[in-house]
Amino acid sequence: MSANLAILQQNLDQISGRIEAACHRSGRDRSDVQVIAVTKYARTEWVRELIRLGWTTLGEARPQQLVQRAEEFRDDSDLPDVHWHLIGHLQRNKVRPVLPIVEVIHSVDSLRLLDRIEFMADELQTRPKVLLEINIAEDSAKDGFSVDALIDEWPKLVERSSWQLDGLMTMAPHTDDETQIRKTFAALRTLRDRLREQTPDEPILHELSMGMSGDFEIAIEEGATMIRIGSALYEGLDR
Ligand SMILES: *Cc1c(COP(=O)(O)O)cnc(C)c1O
How many structural domains comprise the chain? Predict the structure, then answer.
């Protein structure tokens, strides 16, 4: 095994340990937290090794790269099947190529996009999970629904969507301030609970997708069911 792959294996072991510890601290079951291994920075051979080691739920931020990567590994019969998640912005004109591949779209940031996804999914006879991306901090540089807009539109949205909405996603602000990060994640959970109260009869919003390399432990403590880890997987690897 090359030095790189040995380092990758070490990183994975270490991250697994940190996830388990965070679950333990917060009284959560390890099986309630799904890890999406984000491959956007990864070389092909690292991705192959990830898959080989059983890290088969992978996330890409760019639709085009997701399609390419999925094609690359689809026909490799030596490897287990990959479950692809799209975590980055999706333009409406990229919905068609992405839909047959993805199991989860984390980044639904407008009603127009949701409409487009539902329409195309009908045509293609597929049904990915969809999560609404929330811009908790109201950062104008970020995509996503504002909390107020979503609360306002929620009844209409639930009525109009032919699907159950599966969850919410957010990104914490880029900061070392742990309090602020925790507040963001707690706000997503609170929003989820509030929306659920409005529609108690619908089995919706199970997933909270939050937490990345720098903050996944806080996210787990605040109730994340999906964490999206990229750079920490590849730390110390030689390009
Ligand atoms: C890149 C990316 C991640 C992973 O970020 P790291 O800090 O590298 O772990 C998670 N979520 C989204 C939406 C991303 O684009």
Answer: 1
Helix (H) or strand (E) segment spanning residue 167? strand 167-169
Query: What range defines the domain where residue 74 resides?
Result: 3-233
Q: Is residue 238 part of a domain?
A: no
* Tens-digit pLDDT profile for residues 119-175: 999 999 999 999 999 999 888 888 899 999 899 989 888 887 778 899 999 999 999
pTM: 0.96
Ligand 1 pocket, mutate which of 87, 89, 168, 174 (most atoms under 8 A from CB): 87
Task: Summarize the chain as % helix, strand, coil (round to 5).
Answer: 45, 15, 35
Q: Coil, helix or strand for 55? A: coil
> pLDDT tens across 186-209, in order?
999 999 999 999 888 777 899 999
Report the nearest atom of ligand 1 relative to the CA of 61. 15
CATH at residue 29: 3.20.20.10
Binding site membership of 144 for ligand 1 (Cβ less than 6 Å): no
Q: Is the CB of 224 under 6 A from ligand 1?
A: no
Atom of ligand 1 minimally distant from the CA of 106: 13
Identify whether the C-beta of residue 190 lies closer than 8 Å to the C-beta of residue 166.
no
Q: How far apart are CA 3 and CA 19, in angstroms?
A: 24
The finding on whether 26 has its CB within 6 A of some atom of ligand 1 is: no
Q: Is the CB of 212 under 6 A from ligand 1?
A: yes
> Residue 87: CB within 6 Å of ligand 1?
yes
